[in-house]
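Homework help board

Subject: predicted structure for assignment chain

Our instructor gave us this sequence and asked us to write out the predicted structure in C-alpha cell form, then describe one feature. I got the C-alpha cells but I'm not sure how to describe them. Can anyone check?
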Amino acid sequence: MVRHIVMWKLRDKADAVDIKTRLEALAGKIPGLLNIEVGIDFLESEQSADMVLYAELESRGALETYQSHPEHQAVVPLVKAAAIARTVVDYEV
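My C-alpha cell output:
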C-alpha cells in the first residue's frame, strides 16, 4: 500500500472548500485509489499549511494511475491556480 500526502498553502483560503469537494469526489472513480481525505486547517498558524490531502492507494502503479487519470487531471489546474506552495510525500506501508 502507498500513502500519498500533499499539503498546500493557498493564495486565498476561500478556494479550499471547492478544492476539497473536487478532490474528495475522486473517490470511487480511479482504480487503485482506496481512500481519499482532504482537510482544511483551522489553526492558521504561521507554520500551518492551508490544506492537506491524504490518500491510500493499492501500489506505486496505482499512484501513477491516479496521477495521470483524467478525473485527477481535471482538478490539477484548479489546485495549481490556487496554490502558492506545495509539499508532497509518498511512502509505502
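Reply (TA_rk): Your C-alpha cells look well-formed. For the description, you could write something like this. The mean pLDDT is 98. That's the kind of observation they're looking for.
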